[in-house]
Fold this sequence. Notes:
The structure holds two protein chains of two kinds.
Chain A: H1 3-11, H2 25-35, E1 36-39, H3 54-80, H4 87-120, H5 127-137, H6 145-157, H7 173-184, H8 186-189, H9 220-226, H10 231-236, H11 248-260, H12 266-285, H13 298-303, H14 307-314, H15 325-345, H16 353-378
Helix pairs in contact in A: 3-4, 3-5, 3-11, 4-5, 4-6, 5-7, 6-7, 7-16, 11-14, 12-15, 15-16
Chain B: E1 3-4, E2 11-12, E3 22-23, E4 31-33, E5 39-42, E6 52-54, E7 61-62, E8 67-71, E9 78-80, E10 85-92, E11 98-105, H1 120-125, H2 128-137, E12 145-146, E13 162-165, H3 176-179, H4 184-197, E14 201-206, H5 210-215, E15 224-226, H6 235-242, E16 252-253, H7 256-268, E17 274-281, E18 288-293, H8 298-302, E19 309-313, E20 320-322, E21 334-339, E22 343-346, E23 371-372, H9 390-394, H10 401-409, H11 413-418, H12 429-433, H13 440-457
Parallel strand pairs in B: 2-15, 3-23, 4-18, 13-14, 13-16, 14-15, 17-21
Antiparallel strand pairs in B: 1-2, 5-11, 6-8, 7-10, 8-9, 10-11, 12-16, 17-18, 19-20, 19-21
Amino acid sequence: MNPLKTIFKKTDPYFQPEGRFFRFKGIYSATRTFFFLPSPVTKTAPHVRDHIDLKRFMSFVILALLPVTLFGMFNVGYQYHGGDASTFEMLTTGAIHVLPIILVSYGVGFFWEILFAAVRGHEVTEGLLITGLLFPLTLPPTIPLWQVALGISFGVVMGKEVFGGTGRNLLNPALTARAFVFFSYPVSMSGNAVWRLTAPGVDAVSGATALSVGGSGGNIQEMIFNAGFSLDRLFFGFHPGSIGETSAFLCFLGAIFLMVTRVASFRIILGGIFGVIATALIFMVLPGPTDTWFSAGPLYHLFSGGFALGISFMATDPVSAPGTDSGRWIYGFLIGFFTVLLRSVNPAYVEGVMLSILFMNVFSPLIDHVTLKITAARRIPNV
Amino acid sequence: MCGYLDEGHMKRLKTVRTFQSKFNGVPEATVKFLATPDTVALVPVAAPFVKLKLLVRENDRVDVGTPLLQDKRDPQVVFVSPGAGTVEAIVRGRRRVVQEIVIRLDQKSQGAKEMTPISLESLDAMPRMELIQLLKQRGIWPFIRQFPFMDVPDSQSPFPMAVISLHCGDPFVAAPSVFLKDQQTSFLHGIAILEKLAEKVIVATPQRFLSPLKLMGLAKHITHVTPDEYPAGDPGVILYQIKKNVTDNASCTMYPQELIAMGHFFSTGQYQTKRFYAVGGTPARLPAHYCSRMGSPLKHLMGDINPGTGVITGGIFTGNLTPVDAHMGTGLSSAIVLNATDKDSFLGFAWPGKNLLSESRTFMSSLGSAHLDMDATLHGEERACINCGWCDKKCPVNLLPQFIMKAMGAGDMEEVLELGLLDCTGCGLCTFVCPSKINVAAIMAVAKETYHRERMIS
Lengths: 383, 458
């Protein structure tokens, strides 16, 4: 027998209702089911069931996020050394700074998750596996760890647990957490200094992101290019920014993986991309300022900022997205639309993805309501 | 949706949403004839809404066709004995509902005439109400089931359609190429009876049975051809695709073997007590078709089963785990032996899963189309619905099960009906694919039942 199983068998009585550690049953069964996926006999028809379960479902998202996370670490190191170090050195430098953020996020997140599971008497659910990794990826590498802890606490408690846990939340918990940090501690989350980690004592090199370029006359596309953000650099991600957002390439690669395995809705992702392209094209031909992101065109909008990360991993969170197919197209499209709109017409707030997704999260029940009425009206009534 | 085949009269139905994976242990098309069992039983599983009244007691002597149970709502509707002998036991389930009436067979009164045969011509001349009266008296009426609740039908108005599907697509259900053999006369007689009861009779078959049916000379009676996969051949799915208006919802259906039995009774005057059962999974015998009596004991059909396995009767998706000492339910033609012990798998979420059966694309098995093993376990833990929408991607009647479930949870029956609950055929695929392991199909069935009971009271 598997030695781990023997250990679980031995410890099991302590966590039963009459056992000493019954109140920690949540953390025990979460650990146990992580190692040994249970498969009890089904009680009602259909007795045969698919092998897919929520653990596997969620681990596919983690799998898709791994390249993004690893590259995020690498890029933090790359920006720190200015690209002037060995790959290994850059990766370790990045890891030293990024791993604590991830660990704090998971640690504090699981604390709340387990606390609520124990008090409410439900299982520790898998949703936090994603939230706990997604949230750090949306943060700048310079974020203080206590803000990470506060952010994930707000995201898990106010974004999810107050509604009843995974599956019942209205907003994406990771983005709720980010929005909390963003509005509470704007100094750590905006400006030009936070996006690049610098060695102590060294004068900060400007760590401006592509989205902060513009507004000083001239042609925006040339300005972005002259600021050092060529399209391919933006696409592959060797530029300052939030930890996980810089590489549009890896985000879209993850998106393709999730779409092929059908874990994420292709309707949301493609709808979002269409939304950005259509809106950006329309804005380009409309008369408007040529020196702001209003005229930046679809490609710059797609590859810069957090759009790729947001549309691939946050917008596709099925819980906070609409449940109808047509609703998902609309939802994705409008996320793309609002992203470009916010970036273009609001110079005070250059990144629009977070707010557009949260905004559409709020509207997804309404989208569902309308699309459900339309689909229901098409059926031959049966009452 | 419908195109025309070169056969002219047949319409080809297309469902895009079907079950794609392939099971191991599918019964072969060969038939083995079994000796007469010691006992048979009337198991009224097909009548969930009927309030039953017992007409016999233990140790009573009964014949084939003796009424055993009566419907309290309509005392004319009776359920009759599938065998001649003595009532050995009356098995009751929860709330003392009669589950089985077990009859120990004696060999004496086999083959007695039970009714003067009714030829096709005299059937034609028979008034509709008289025919219904006869069907009720002879215990055949409850085998006709009316949409959408699959209850014993209302005899007041003619059915808009009678939808007969020869095979629902479930590979573990008895094949028409087996049970229709040498039964053409009975089958056609049965169809003639339905033609008296319904304005239109639909006879549908999956594509793969078309050539055997042609050989039997039945091709010209087939009106619709469905895809081979489950649940394209489910009568409810067929009705959903061909119905034109609200009134069609009150159509009826019948299991094909019961239709043959009905035709046999009218054309010969004798009850047909033999039935074909498909036995699959991992039984002691070869997975194949077995011919035995109606209401046969499970043990008789599959021999002893291994410890740790269980028997599902009534189809792989819709059937229930049944105790081994029980008898086959009326109308059911499938028994599957599957592993049914609690399990766990080490780091189960992380394996590539080359041999794990799944309709999702998250296992290596989805890259091939190999036949895979299945068991009667959950493969995970129940969680809250995450709105992934995989259930509606499998629904053959285009429902959105997750929204119906949530509306039902909120107690909003109007919304539930508007979303089309009554079109649900209970195929079970929504539950099969659910990654949160929610039994959506059961929730829908409860919703349907609640609504039907409300209607029966008012």
